[in-house]
Design a protein that fits this description.
By secondary structure, this protein is of the alpha+beta class. The chain has helices at about 25-35, 65-80, 110-125, 135-145, and strands at about 1-5, 20, 40, 60, 65, 95, 105, 150. It has one domain. Strands 2-1-8-7 form a four-stranded antiparallel sheet. It has a two-stranded parallel sheet with strand order 3-6. Strands 4-5 form a two-stranded antiparallel sheet. Strand 4 and strand 5 (about 65) form a beta hairpin. The N and C termini lie close together (about 10 Å).
Length: about 150
Amino acid sequence: MGYTLQVQNAPADEDTTRIERGFTLGTARLCEAMVALGMAHPSPVPDFPDSDHLAAADFDGEQPVTDRARDYLRALAALQVDHGTHGANRRWGIPTHKVSSGDGWYVTADECNEALSAYENARVVGAPHPDAFADDVVPFLRKAARFGGFRVH
């Protein structure tokens, strides 16, 4: 069991739309390899919006029924897609916090394309294909870039 990376909008008949990595060690190796190749940049996990004020009555199943629940879910969605620079200049590639925990992070197509470009550039100058990528990470990123990015759960 671990984190699942899932392309969100790919047709059901597409392959390479889901990969899994183990907790801690699997994702740590993945992040380290991505940073080493310039595909990702270290980023701290941001603070999540305050949910202490929410109650079961704010939802019907998973659907929000109150303004405060809708506000919380909007803030959470904005956080999950945020690039992680927190007001600083935007950095190239995928923020590592998005692939180091299964909190519903959304890695955008732009972030995937930047990571792929960095990977291809690194390979041209002789960097080896990282063991942490196995044979699924690069095809997965290509698919995610085509279909709007991916989520990490």
